[in-house]
TrEMBL record:
This is Uncharacterized protein. Residues 278-358 are annotated as: Disordered. Residues 296-313, 335-358 have a biased composition (Basic and acidic residues). Residues 315-327 have a biased composition (Pro residues).
Amino acid sequence: MPPCLPFIYRLGLLRRATAFSPATRPCAPSIIADQMAPRKLDASASRPAARFVTAHSGARDKDGRLKPFHDAPAAFRPNLTPQQMLEKGMHGGIYFNPLGGKPGILYPRSRYPKGIPGVSIDEFPPEWFKGVPPGLYKSRKYSVQNNFYKVKSGLDQAGWESNGWINECDPRGWTQWYFRFYMGRRLDNGEDERQIGRWLGVAGDKGRWKQNLIGKCLRDRKAFDDPSVSPVVRQTLLHWAYELTEADFEKGARRVKTHGAYAIPADQLHGVTVKTQGKRKFTQGDDVQEASTKVDYTEQKKDRAARASRRGEGLPPPAKATKPPPSRAAKRKRVLDSHVEETPHKSDYEKQRDERKRQNLKQLAELGLT
């Protein structure tokens, strides 16, 4: 073996570590980087610069949704606060234990014996956790009994990471991002927009799992808050800071009836969905047409009442009005129009032929031979 080979090998490792270091790509998914880099990640170096605004007050609108967040799209309207999520029970109780649950890919136990860095409750207000059993958020082992609906819902840490949902600034995923966003943290690298977009796709006005739950309530003919209807989907929505409300159910039901629902076969919604005709464009005179239709309907109703009255009195029905026979001039015109059709772009020969034909038909009509 040449003496320079170990140095070249070490140089290659150094270049590879530098190229994939999270410090060079702040707050970006780097599963490949973690698998290839020979040194431990520096969690502080991977965090992007953040700014802070006033934390959300927890105020709600008339429909129970949280009022709009500062520096966030108006459509982003969860209806559960972080404290409510903790009190109800989520993620099997392991969420804020750095060693909770099965190990993932980005933070293997061999390199992180203390668990996932940055997972702690110390940064959040103590009143959020006051009165909440520690087993609901600091358990070592996942348990469905720690979930509000007593069912398993969602993937584990490795599943989140392998799907590319985890970003290094929030190693526990969406819920951790939401807790920090609620407290006023704002990231300028596009992460906030990405996470808000994910929420809209799950629990927004047209969110797939929200519409799925509404469709199942309609299919089973049960109330919007009946816990027996898909507890797994309800637990999933709880992880996304959302619970189905009556106002959202009524609004979403109209869409399900016309468009169906995500992950529900059409045959299961038989009797729920309705066929709709394409929307007719409004044109000038539609209001007049609608008014005339109403008048015609009123006249028909009067005619039916008059006929019923005559039958009750034993009178015969009124004679139907007959049209007078057409005059000789009308007959001639009809004959001429039926035999001669004006077509565009006629040649001179065709024009002379049609004119001669018209004269012949006129003479035949005058002689009574038509």
